[in-house]
Amino acid sequence: MKNISKKRVAYILYILFVAIFGFYARLWWIHNIPTQQVFDFETYQEIATNIFQHKGHSFGGEPIAFQGMAYPMTLGYLYRWMGSNDIMIAKTFNVVLSTLTYIISFFIFARLTNKLWVLATAFTVVALLPNYIAYTNVVGTEVLSAFLFSVVILLQLYPFDKRLHYPLLGLFIGITALAKPFFMAYPVVAAAALWLREKDVKKTAVYFAALFAVMVLVIAPWTYRNYQKFGRFIPVSYNSGYVFYLNNNENNSTGGWMPIKDMYATEEFRKQVDEILEHGQRSEKLAHELDPLFKAEAKKWILENPGKFLKLGFLRVKGTFFSGAWDIDSWTMNELREKQEWWDKVAFERNKNLFRGFSDMMIHLMSSFGLAYVFFNIKSALISLFNKKTLLGNHLIIPTVNIGFFLAIYFIFEGQARYNFPLLFLLAISAVLCIERIHRGFANTGNTPQV
């Protein structure tokens, strides 16, 4: 008993140490690693500043709904509360959210495994993962999205009175959809997870209906605002068609985003786009009229070129999960090199390359073992989906259904390294569970790998 007690105490102390160190690492990063907010991140800061200055959710003096509104609006009202739009407020807010994410992850992992070493390993990875630390430096939706997604998963794993549980989960799904619009499809994912776990038709139907209804109520005010501003039905944002076509057109060879000027377009289609963009005088972020036009062209091209679409989809998945951590250099520490004195150049490059190499290795390992765990489970999930007698455990359902959902979205629309961010905590536990399964297989057969 004394040995067990000592192990428990040591385990608790270890978890507390990792949690505190993870928080400190995030604080250290935002105060010591300089970065410039570029592209989407610069846009978020401008929108948040406009909200802070009582100019509404606007960009360039015009209303905007190009991306999810949850992050810039939350940040804008936080700026008002703090009385300043100092970017360090945004970074500190990210530190708080990121810390809450790995704390929530601990409780998620506790429902997916009863093995302490698996739980401790996955928690350590999430708390100290370079991506999760580095992105606290960025004024972007990544940190908020990961936090909201972790809450959505947590609520599915810790059910309580459905009169409160269902509306609360629907509320967080709605908020997450306002940050990442593709989450409007998430009630289907949550219902599928419940069905795989309980196989209760009536309960699953009520669950889906409640989640969907509450989600719609959450996003409805923003949808109404968009109708007032743009004169048409835009549930959350109007960039889905834009993203859809730029990633799926005849000139795309990478599966990723490309400038409008480089996309394939017939003379008539190019003329329509140029007129909407006023021949380069209007920002594409404000051109909501492009959305239905691009969406129609994307669907047409995919139907005519299914083979090329599949190739681009594969490239998008590869770009999201197997491109390493180049995004850390580009977005979270892009001013660091400029701050170095000339005599520190060699040491700086060596240390930066070491950090980048470690970060790349972590992402590749998590993606390899994490996705392998999902693929191992696909057969069981498909059988269970159509067999009322086969129930699955949360350790299989949660990673497989949720990672599968993100894979489908990225395969169809767009993929790049930073898009794996909301999934990293699930990839961490999936990877460790996969390693645990492999280890258990060797232990059960009495075999050990030969060198």
Automatic annotation (TrEMBL):
Subcellular location: Cell membrane
GO biological process: lipopolysaccharide biosynthetic process
GO MF assignments: pentosyltransferase activity
Entry keyword Glycosyltransferase: yes
The keyword Transferase appears for this protein: yes
Annotated InterPro entries: LipidA_mod_glycosyltrf_83
Entry GO CC: plasma membrane
Keywords carried by this UniProt record: Cell membrane, Glycosyltransferase, Membrane, Transferase, Transmembrane, Transmembrane helix
Stretches that traverse the bilayer: 12-31, 93-110, 116-135, 142-160, 166-196, 205-224, 361-378, 390-413, 419-435
Main location: membrane
Membrane topology: Multi-pass membrane protein
UniProt xrefs under PANTHER family: MANNOSYLTRANSFERASE YKCB-RELATED (PTHR33908), MEMBRANE PROTEIN (PTHR33908:SF11)
Name of the molecule in the record: Glycosyltransferase RgtA/B/C/D-like domain-containing protein
Natural source organism: Geosporobacter ferrireducens
